[in-house]
Design goal:
There is one protein chain. The chain contains 19 helices and six strands. With 389 residues, it is an alpha/beta fold. It has two domains: 9-123 and 318-385, Alpha/Beta hydrolase fold, catalytic domain (Rossmann fold); 126-310, no CATH class. Strands 1-2-5-6 form a four-stranded parallel β-sheet, sandwiched between helices. β1 (87-92), α5 and β2 form a beta-alpha-beta unit. It is globular. It comes from Amorphotheca resinae ATCC 22711.
Length: 389
């Protein structure tokens, strides 16, 4: 679940590459973001009590998003000749999940579809998704500590400092806890992500060595790397994107607590000697209940997030029968070392979708569309233009 609006067209990384291929472009802020009825604690409160807010939020998944897209397509192309009424769609990450929902429900509106890092784990439960993605998160932790071995001790020292202070007040009014610090690993799956986290850890270490406290500029940088206050939709609905007919019940937390590397999720006290036997592992793209305790905006949404986590009657997002008969060309860039969309599960999905061509690489990460735009777009258009028969 992105929960993020689109960048203005002039600031988007793909605009020039797509225009150069002769396309017209329309960027859509998915419902609940940007110019499309943005969700915040205050706007959500207008819906009424917690149950009314939860019912409203249930309408912000991919099935509703693609209904919006199809309604917009029909309106925009009402006066177009028949051969121009279909459009091409492009989805990155959760946008790719939406593409597969679109192919399931409204294939008649599509000429072709492009996906980067977004072959959704169709038919898999939230538990199965996290059982897979935690493994990649552990790999990225090993890569981090291999690149920055000095951070093994530094992260432990920072954790002890934060714990000794009972948490560090953040400029926004939130609190940085040890568990909060370990959420920085969500950046590990991006190009340059290991460096991003190391730079923040180094700043904190340097502050402590010079002043015996962590300075406001550093805390602002850490907070900016962690906050969901401006993308609350992501936090509240993230696990729901994997749900069809079952509740997530905070799957990331439940699965994480079964793993030795993430025992910090249990809150079980450990001796200093036991803790130092191994590095503290950072979490990845996981949402946990405790995140709604230490953030000014998310605190207001903790109760409704719990209702969403326990909701069971989620409708189906994908039609496997339709996807198996899909006639719309689908071009997907898939990353072997994707920390957020598991490669093995993505390949299972690719086998379900007829007319799916992939560019597969182990030389790029999940955000390659931003970090290596020209290369990815070249590969996608090559899939479109080249024939293998």
């Amino acid at each position: 679940m992105s929960g993020c609006p689109c960048a203005p067209p002039q600031d988007s990384y793909i605009t020039n590459a797509v225009l150069d291929k002769g396309y017209q472009m329309l960027y859509l802020d998915q419902r609940g973001t940007g110019l499309s009825t943005p969700i915040s604690a205050a706007t959500l409160a207008l819906q009424g009590d917690i149950n009314r807010q939860a019912d409203y939020l249930k309408l912000f998944r991919a099935d509703s998003i693609v209904k919006d897209c199809e309604a917009i397509r029909k309106t925009l192309t009402e006066d177009y000749p028949t051969e121009l009424k279909k459009w091409s769609i492009f989805g990155q990450s959760f946008g790719g999940f939406c593409v597969l929902t679109y192919l399931s429900k409204f294939p008649q509106g599509l000429r072709e579809a492009f996906i980067t890092g977004g072959l959704a784990p169709i038919g898999r439960s939230a538990d199965q998704v996290y059982q897979a993605t935690y493994q990649k998160v552990m790999e990225r932790n090993k890569a981090y500590y291999s690149k920055y071995p000095e951070d093994v001790d530094t992260v432990h020292s920072l954790a002890l400092h934060i714990k000794s202070k009972g948490g560090l007040p953040l400029p926004s009014g939130g609190v940085l806890t040890v568990r909060g610090l370990l959420l920085l690993g969500r950046h590990f799956g991006f190009h340059g992500g290991l460096d991003t986290v190391h730079n923040l850890i180094l700043r904190m270490k340097t502050d402590l060595s010079q002043f015996q406290f962590i300075t406001r500029p550093t805390l602002i940088a850490v907070e900016n790397a962690l906050t969901f206050d401006d993308i609350v939709l992501y936090a509240v609905l993230h696990e729901a994107i994997y749900c069809e007919g079952a509740a997530s019940n905070w799957a990331a937390e439940r699965v994480g607590k079964t793993l030795r590397e993430f025992q910090w999720l249990t809150g079980t006290p450990q001796s200093a000697a036991a803790v130092r036997e191994q590095p503290l592992y950072f979490a990845g793209e996981m949402i946990y209940p405790f995140m709604f305790d230490n953030s000014p905006e998310l605190e207001k949404l903790g109760a409704v997030a719990d209702v969403i986590a326990k909701y069971t009657d989620w409708p189906k997002l994908y039609d496997e029968w339709q996807l198996a008969r899909n006639e719309v060309p689908l071009y997907a860039a898939t990353f072997v070392d994707d920390m957020y969309v598991d490669f093995g599960l993505a390949q299972d999905t690719a086998k379900l979708v007829k007319n799916c061509k992939q560019y597969i690489t182990n030389g790029m990460y999940h955000n390659a569309i931003r970090a290596k735009t020209d290369e990815i777009m070249e590969k996608l258009f090559a899939l479109r233009d080249d024939s293998i028969d």
